[in-house]
Amino acid sequence: MEAATGAGALRLAKLERPDLAILDGLPDLDGLAITGRLRADPATRSLPILFISRVSEGGTAQARALEGGADAWLPHPPDPEVVVATARALLRVSRAEATLHAHEARTRMLLEQVQEHAIFLLTPDARVASWNEGVRRALGYDEDEFIGLDARALFTPEDRVAGVPEQELATARATGVASDDRWMLRKDGTRLWASGATSALRDHGDQLAGYAKVLRDLTETKRAQDALRDSQHRLQIAVSTARLGSWDHDPSTGAVTWLPGTAALFGQPEGAFAGTADAFLDLIHPDDRTRVREAILTPDLEAERGLEFRVLRADGAVAWIYGTSQAQPESPGRIARVVGVGIDVTEQKMSQERVQLAAKMQAVGQLAGGIAHEINNQIMALMGFTEFLGTSLPAEDARQNDLAEVTKAAKRVAFITRQLLAFSRQEMRQITTFTPNTVLSGMEGLLQRVLGSDFACLLELDPRVDAVEMDPAQFEGIILNLALNARDAMPRGGRLTISTGALQMDDALQQTHESVEIPLGRYVRITINDTGHGMDEATRQRAFEPFFTTKPVGQGTGLGLASVYGVVKQSNGFIWLESAPGRGTTVHIDLPVAQADAVPADAPSPGHDHQAGAGTVLLVEDENNLRDVLSRMLVQEGFRVHAVSDAATALAALADRPRPDVVLTDLVMPGMSGWEFGQGLARTMPDLPLVYMTGYAEEEVIRRGLYQPGATLLRKPFTAPELAATLRDARLTARRP
């Protein structure tokens, strides 16, 4: 496209957004004026400019053009080939910069959220182009001193001499990514063991735009691994010296001699071992025999070798042994024997598996907490906007039914989210009063899905049962756990029946419960019966023992019934089971009836006057859609609202505006958290009512130091009446002397 005037050129540049501008003087504006206006307009600020002008006296034309904002200058009249080559070069540079900026924009939010990884971008010449908080944690650099740094400064002197930085970038360019673990340097010169990956970034024309580099500080992990290796070596020496279990293998004949103590290690009677390599392997678990043959019995003069393997004891039990072997040379190149030592590590192996399970459960819990936060926030918005839409439609409108179904589905998702948190132990224990029938009715669909289509789930609920006091989430966890156990006991399908009933424990009934001593009083009995294969008396007696399981290795932890037993006892209840082979299993749970003055959580709450206690609310919520929903809820409930997006704006509002009647703030926000904001207000305005809200599990915000029990907390999602009641209660509490 071409323009005959400066004004026309500016208009075309803004409307058409060309990839390159080639400027000369025009009748109404000279080239420098056009360049200045292009650079001043945000729409054309990044447009590459090739400036063409006549050589002025003193040779200052080029300097004036570049100082005025041009990217390149050519003398008039220009050589056409030079113009084309210069334009192509400017376009390549512009596209590379645009690609790098795009990569940086897409990853900036992720980079700032990743705290344990140093993640940053490099220009094609290995200069640092971005920064995240992980850089400060791992490498010690602040943003202003890290941007522009030559990335070679992060490598050790010996690696720089060996050309490792250049080799790493060359590999990334050739293959797309280069990764390794190596020692690197922090800002203060100390070394860290870093696990890193460097990826090449390319634009749409497959031109190199830069690199993305990810580092994680594994110094402590490496030290722990080194310490573990040293410990294992010392352990091997100690076992060999103590001769807890050892053997000699003659590779030439296949004979294996057990030294004293080895028979007990393998769980075999003394003198029963046949003394051959084949007999040795027959005692090894079939899945481990190949590894044992290669690592324990096969000669190797190069190094001592070891591994963990399973052995089959004479009593049928499976034990874990850590064994090592070392070849003993008779002469250069000839092996006389292979000496092996072993130690029973069954208990250590079980402990390790428990630790790994605990770590997995912790990871599941943290993941569940993060998922729940996002789900709860979105459900809050979904329910709010659905309610607003419903109030805007006539009551007889057929779409009201659709909105009711949307609301029902949203509440169901919120319920499932609570169950996820309870199962992962992310929910703090909250004792409330509820009727078991209500919770069981709400779980019916979930239980059917957990069991599967080849199972029948029946609820037989006595409407006369009273309320109980315990954590409803833990109650749900008990029922789910027992349902899962029942499903495993019915591999070909079956029927699960859950019933409730009122129980008055008196002297006569107490005498029939010889195995369980239940105090006199009123109880709610929950009975869970399955049509599974049942269990014998020995198994029934041990069913509630921690880590006892009848399932194969890797398919059960033995913690399910033990945790159920613990929760029931923690709630002052009683649990026992009846079972016999081929007759299924019945679990009885007796929970004491709640005190007479307790109000069930599922009972209707006292009504509130829609306008009673109305006042001004300072709302602090960082998510735009939630802020809108909450504002409209509050207005609907008769409150005046001043809504802001962060704590800093809220503090400014408190300084400049009339004091509100109550403050409602989210706990987790960018910058200053809601808890820090609220604690500051509690010191300066101690009589100002504060209500916190969050979509995270309570345990998560407590763990992160964002909340302490005792403060008023609303957990998302909640309804407008619940919100209004909480705010009014907070105001009433603040007014009490």
Instruction: Please give the largest β-sheet.
Output: 5 strands, antiparallel
Strand order of the largest sheet: 9-8-12-11-10
Number of strands: 24
Low-confidence blocks of residues: 552-559, 603-613
Structural class, from secondary structure content? alpha/beta
Shape: flat
Specify Rg, calculated over alpha carbons.
Answer: 37 Å
Strand content: 15-25%
Give an overview of the whole structure.
This protein has 737 residues and is an alpha/beta fold. It contains 24 helices and 24 strands. The strands form six sheets. A five-stranded antiparallel beta sheet has the order 9-8-12-11-10, with helices on both faces. Strands 14-16-17-19-18 form a five-stranded mixed beta sheet. It has a five-stranded parallel beta sheet with strand order 21-20-22-23-24, with helices on both faces. The chain is flat and about 110 Å long. The termini are far apart.
Secondary structure blueprint with pairings:
Elements: H1 6-16, E1 21-23, H2 31-40, E2 49-53, H3 61-67, E3 72-75, H4 80-113, E4 117-122, H5 133-139, H6 143-146, H7 157-161, H8 164-175, E5 177-185, E6 191-202, E7 208-217, H9 219-242, E8 246-250, E9 255-258, H10 262-265, H11 277-282, H12 289-297, E10 305-312, E11 318-331, E12 334-344, H13 346-392, H14 399-423, E13 432-434, H15 436-451, E14 455-460, E15 468-470, H16 472-488, E16 494-505, H17 507-511, E17 521-530, H18 537-542, H19 560-570, E18 574-579, E19 585-592, E20 616-620, H20 624-636, E21 640-644, H21 647-656, E22 662-666, H22 674-684, E23 690-694, H23 698-703, E24 713-715, H24 720-735
Parallel strand pairs: 1-2, 2-3, 14-16, 20-21, 20-22, 22-23, 23-24
Antiparallel strand pairs: 4-7, 5-6, 6-7, 8-9, 8-12, 10-11, 11-12, 13-15, 16-17, 17-19, 18-19
Helix pairs in contact: 1-2, 13-14, 13-20, 14-16, 15-16, 16-19
